[in-house]
Amino acid sequence: MAIDLEFDKNHLWHPYTSTTHPLPCYPVESASGVRIKLEDGTELIDGMASWWSAIHGYNVPALNRAIAEQSAKMAHVMFGGLTHEPAVELAKKLVQMTPASLQKVFLADSGSIAVEVAIKMALQYWQGRNKPTKNRLVTVLHGYHGDTFGAMGVCDPVNGMHGLFKSMLPETLFLEAIPQGFNLAPCPSLLAEMEARIAENADQLAAFIIEPVVQGAGGMRIYNPEWLKHIRAWCDKYDLLLICDEIATGFGRTGTLFACEHANVEPDILCLGKALSGGYMTLAATLASDEVAEGVCASEAGVFMHGPTFMGNPLACAVANGSLSIISEGRWRNQVPAIEQQLKAQLPPLENEASVSSVRVLGAIGVVEMQRPVNVAEAQKVFIEQGAWIRPFGKLIYIMPAYCMCSEDLQKLTQAIAAYAMQASV
Ligand code: PMP
């Protein structure tokens, strides 16, 4: 039976959409490998990997099996006072693969919640360390950390999407934007300016939160990893925790397992999500050092005050274990650089198009910034004609394909972007 698109249009509220002016919505029948199959039989090469998450593609036999086997044992059981093998195995894997100082794993149900958890940990930590005035976050402009209130409080309030909630959001110290350019070394005067603002506010600052090397939904900006070293040094000097939000960049996307490895920097708290479950289930994790955990538990509450109903969901943990096993096999270490090389060959020539402002590539991420905001419906018509699924936002057309995408399919994605850029140039 056909998907009832009329009902969808009238009753299903899609993300970031208006109910009065809904965007066109394409009915999906199935997805396998790197292809999404629409109900009318059209097959689209997926450039979005379901918003960075489906890093191994769709319909992955090992992941299907992990879910099926786990669901035959137990789909869910409350995590309070009970534990289970999929969660323990997942925590072991995460402790082993993340920076050595991160020893405690708190499982969350989405990226935004992993960020809420990180913020709450930082606030409770300073209560436990008898410095309760350290209760604000500091970050840089162009960050994006999720759509819940704590997370919105650390998203860019000027260029970001949450300005309309401003009056309700916690007060955050926003530093200047980090200039773009993977190879552009930090400029001493900007460093000095930023450090001065941190120094001035240090007695109120609990933590610095940052997306390492790539700022995602706040502008798809790629910056020099040296910035992270300075941020780490400021955190040490002024007594702040460092929260790295690797929800988008984690698990190989930027060419290293975690983006903070580009700078050899270890955070005190690390947020993971999206690709954690290979894009199969909603699951995220917040990892903390022993020092952070001790501080949190030394606070008056004595415990960490967070506990969602679906915490440690066994199906989600089982499929995440399957996904992390594929990562451990290591094919991504060749696949991601190959994608990077191809994107670096095929996207920069688009800078010659009048409609294109700039192109940037890192790992399996390709970004084409247009001169003007992209009309999503129009652009998607062109992409779909070219057999590609790409979802632009603002002036940005970006792709972050599954790591297993072959070069022919990747070329079709870059050709689709080129076709749109050419059309927009005339
Ligand atoms: N942090 C970053 C860096 C993200 O990219 C996102 C999602 N785009 C989030 C947090 C929020 O994750 P979720 O959508 O799973 O809540």
Strand order of the largest sheet: 4-12-11-10-7-5-6
Q: Rounded to an integer, what's the Rg over CA atoms? A: 21 Å
Q: Low-confidence spans: pLDDT under 50, at least 5 residues?
A: none
Decide which structural class fits the backbone.
alpha/beta
Helix content: 25-40%
Overall tally of domains: 2
The CATH architecture of the largest domain comes to 3-Layer(aba) Sandwich
Q: In angstroms, what separates the terminal alpha carbons?
A: 42 Å
CATH class of the largest domain: Alpha Beta
Gross morphology is globular
Number of helices: 13
Pfam families: Aminotran_3
Function: Catalyzes the transfer of the alpha-amino group from S-adenosyl-L-methionine (SAM) to 7-keto-8-aminopelargonic acid (KAPA) to form 7,8-diaminopelargonic acid (DAPA). It is the only aminotransferase known to utilize SAM as an amino donor.
Protein name: Adenosylmethionine-8-amino-7-oxononanoate aminotransferase
Subunit structure: Homodimer.
Q: What topology does this entry show?
A:
Blueprint: H1 5-11, E1 28-32, E2 35-38, E3 43-46, H2 49-52, H3 61-73, H4 85-97, E4 102-108, H5 111-128, E5 136-140, H6 149-153, E6 172-175, H7 188-201, E7 205-210, E8 214-215, E9 221-222, H8 226-237, E10 241-245, E11 269-272, E12 284-289, H9 290-298, H10 314-329, H11 332-346, E13 356-362, E14 365-370, H12 376-385, E15 388-389, E16 396-399, H13 407-425
Parallel strand pairs: 3-15, 5-6, 5-7, 7-10, 10-11
Antiparallel strand pairs: 1-2, 2-3, 4-12, 8-9, 11-12, 13-14, 14-16
The structure holds 4'-deoxy-4'-aminopyridoxal-5'-phosphate.
